[in-house]
Amino acid sequence: QYADDFWYELRLKGVAPILAHPERYPELMAHTERLLKWCREGLLLQCNAGSFAGRFGESAQSAAKLLLRNHLVDFIGSDAHRAVGRDTDMRAGASVIREIAGEEEFKRISEENPMRVIHGEAIEVVKPEKLEREKKKGFWSRLSF
Q1: Residue 113 has what pLDDT?
Q2: Which of 17, 53, 74, 110 is 20–30 Å from 118 (CA)?
Q3: Distances in Å between the alpha carbon of 25 and those of 30, 56, 109, 120?
Q4: Residues paired with residue 77 on neighbouring β-strands, in sequence order
Q5: Judging by beta carbons within 10 Å of its beta carbon (0-12, 13-18, 19+), is residue 137 exposed, middle or buried?
């Protein structure tokens, strides 16, 4: 409810906000136009590698893939906040990211952008005007002959 003002205030202070695991916020993913607006204004997104591998459910997985296909993922993280239940192994998610977006994009979100943050450098933000959703294949196109 107050997010628009919050992101605006951060930008006024010269802070580039990074939103962690947006793919796991059902309310936000139900209103992607708002998320897209924030991203065009400079909000950066970090998705969890586990989401791409289905570790947080089918909904988070398809949301993460949607964000990746639309060039909205700026960082990849492990979400390993504690020693029990979650680890830093991101290989399964990395494999999915590489399959969808390629090696160059994987390096951008796993190496290049994090290094830019560490060095206080700007991250290029070029975001689409609207989200392109994956088209569902019809019955006949799924048949193999």
Answers
A1: 97
A2: 53
A3: 9, 11, 20, 28
A4: 48
A5: exposed
DSSP for residue 125: -
Place of tokens 């390096």: 107
Low-confidence residues of the chain, pLDDT below 50? 145
* Residue 141, token pair as written in the block: 């196109």
- The domain made up of 3-80+87-122 has a fold known as TIM Barrel (3.20.20)
Residues 86, 78 contacting (CB under 8 angstroms): yes
Given a contact cutoff of 8 angstroms between Cβ atoms, the answer to whether 127 and 106 are in contact is no
**What pTM did the predictor assign?**
0.85
Instruction: Determine the Cα–Cα distance for residues 16 and 113; give it in Å rounded to an integer.
Output: 13
